[in-house]
Amino acid sequence: MNNDTPLILTIAPNGAYKTREQHPAVPLTPEALADTARSCLDAGAAMIHMHVRQPDGRHLLDAQAYQDATAAIRRAVGQSLVIQITTEAAQIYEPPAQMAVVRDTRPEAVSVGLRELLKPEVPESELHGFFSWLVQEAIMTQVILYDEQDVASWQRLRADGIIPEGPWFLLFVLGRYTAGQKSSPTDLLPFLNQDDGRYPWAMCAFGPQENACAITAAGLGGHVRVGFENNLHLKDGSIAPDNAALIAQVAQGAQALGRPLASAQDIRQLFGRG
Question: 107 vs 63, 69, 198, CA distance in Å?
């Protein structure tokens, strides 16, 4: 990858835990997600990483809830955003339910935390079957990796044929296990040192240096996920008014780098859906 590659800018607007008490603009309903999708599209996003919630605000993995939220976003933006659901466990769900919700929802795109599925109780044959199904169904799959050990596990599973060849998209999570979950651009280095460069990668980061991490990744040919899921602050340390403001900052930085922004159609073509 180089800086001519369009930058995939993903908004992660809510996550599994953020509440309206923490910020009134955290979107928790299909309608609020649709409004956020529209404003973030206008600011430069081409993908939305979407969580859905129970009526009391708790994290939810549910096919009907995903389909309802997807329909609301499609009414707002048509096909102008790639809609990615999550399989995040959030200390609630186990691997069978995480894999089942993807099969039941059949989304355009999904993110999967490798370490959440790579457990002793999950046979490698089951992992192989799930990842093979993702390839067969042409579901754009982003594999979440939390540290260089996760990268090594990913490489081993591929080398052993447990995870088949496919148009995978990696997500490097910066600073997940640092004090106070505050990321720094240097947190990217262990991932890049371990990565074999075979697949496109993106990063997400925690705390007020989210934008600095994003611009570093963009300058190195990677892609970017930002949003209230992991950070509420603008680069000057103030509280962002909404998710779109975090997207706009990265879009401005990409322009300074001479890096064009990807459209949803660019993403679909890159991962074999176009």
Answer: 9, 11, 24
Domains of the chain: 9-270 (3.20.20.70)
What is residue 2's predicted lDDT score, i.e. its pLDDT?
56
> Is the pLDDT reported for residue 181 higher than 80?
no
Query: How many angstroms from the chain centroid is the CA of residue 219?
Result: 19
Q: Tell me the HSE value of 10 on the side-chain side, using a 13 A CA sphere.
A: 30
Residues β-bridged to residue 174? 205
C-beta atoms surrounding 272 within 10 Å: 11
Distances (CA, A) of 94 to 91, 98, 194: 8, 6, 28
Q: Would you say 153 and 143 are in contact if contact means Cβ atoms under 8 Å apart?
A: no
pTM of the model: 0.96
Q: How do 169-174 and 201-205 pair as beta strands?
A: parallel
Could you give the percent of the chain with pLDDT greater than 70? Answer: 97
Structure tokens at 91: 């200390």
Q: What is the pLDDT of residue 273?
A: 76
